[in-house]
Design brief:
The protein has one domain: Up-down Bundle (Na+/H+ antiporter like fold), CATH 1.20.1530. Helices cover about 70% and strands about 0% of the residues. The protein has 14 helices and no strands. Helix 6 packs antiparallel against helix 7. The radius of gyration is 18 Å and the shape is globular.
């Protein structure tokens, strides 16, 4: 944030950083850790948890929108901002800090489902709000299958049972070393806090769901299902991540209350440093 404010680099430099993160670092993460995932009952809860959070956001914001009588654009901005978590750019560095970098693998399933929801449900909701038209199924499928991290995940799933490519793990780990610092640097460059007073109520409602209620729901499901250990802990931790940056940027790009979207992302990241520590302590 400081580097951005003193104009050392162009304000949109984060776009170049994001190209590296999305097309190189995150695919390397999938190639490195997907083969080590032990598939079974333990991956069901991480896979369905983002769906539960998304459905909960639609219900929660739907009720709030009726009572507060907010406009449709603001309602959509709130849903896409608090319905999806920042499970990769912020989630992976936070997991590395709280649980150790070797445990990032437990977050990949949660993050991949979050991406699928972003590419389908969030995109559809934003475009529906704008035009009321229908989205082509081909458009959605194409968007998913052309995403590098998704392709890397599918490749790892197909290849790893038949070929041990662990010989390239040291190379992948060198690339992964760039993920946490560059992701947080990119986030810092995008944070804006101007004129927050007018959106205070909407910010509080959004963050109350995303940082408190959503992880509480997933925490209850994890405990009820008996999913103990690192998989359960990180599933709750990922559910406690603040707003999905790409989803918020998407809503902002289409002028669905861009000021609110930026504020939810910026304030959410700062508050999440405290709330995540609290959830880590609870677990």
């Amino acid at each position: 944030m400081l580097i951005t404010r003193i104009n050392i680099v162009p304000r949109d430099s984060y776009k170049g950083i994001n190209v590296w993160l999305l097309n190189v670092a995150l695919p390397a993460l999938a190639l490195r850790y997907v083969p080590e995932i032990e598939w079974g009952f333990g991956t069901i809860i991480p896979a369905i948890s983002p769906i539960i959070v998304w459905i909960g956001a639609n219900l929660f914001i739907g009720i709030y929108a009726k009572k507060a009588r907010i406009d449709r654009a603001t309602k959509t901005a709130l849903i896409v901002s608090c319905g999806l978590g920042n499970t990769a750019f912020l989630g992976f560095p936070m997991i590395s800090a709280f649980f150790g970098e070797e445990n990032i693998q437990y977050a990949i399933v949660f993050d991949q489902m979050t991406f699928i929801l972003f590419s389908t449900m969030a995109v559809s909701l934003v475009l529906k709000t704008l035009s009321g038209g229908k989205i082509s199924p081909f458009f959605i499928v194409k968007k998913i299958f052309l995403f590098p991290t998704f392709l890397a995940t599918i490749t790892a799933l197909i290849v790893s049972p038949f070929l041990d490519y662990s010989i390239i793990n040291p190379f992948l780990e060198k690339i992964l070393a760039t993920l946490s610092p560059l992701a947080l640097f990119s986030i810092g460059m995008q944070m804006k806090f101007g004129n927050w007073h007018s959106e205070l109520r909407n910010i509080i409602v959004s963050l109350s769901y995303k940082l408190l209620l959503a992880p509480l729901i997933i925490f209850a499901i994890v405990k009820f299902s008996g999913l103990d250990g690192m998989t359960g802990n990180i599933t709750v931790f990922e559910a406690a991540m603040p707003a999905h940056i790409s989803a918020s940027l998407l809503a902002s790009q289409y002028e669905l209350n861009p000021q609110l979207c930026n504020l939810i992302v910026g304030v959410g990241i700062i508050v999440s440093f405290v709330s995540s520590a609290i959830w880590w302590w609870v677990m």
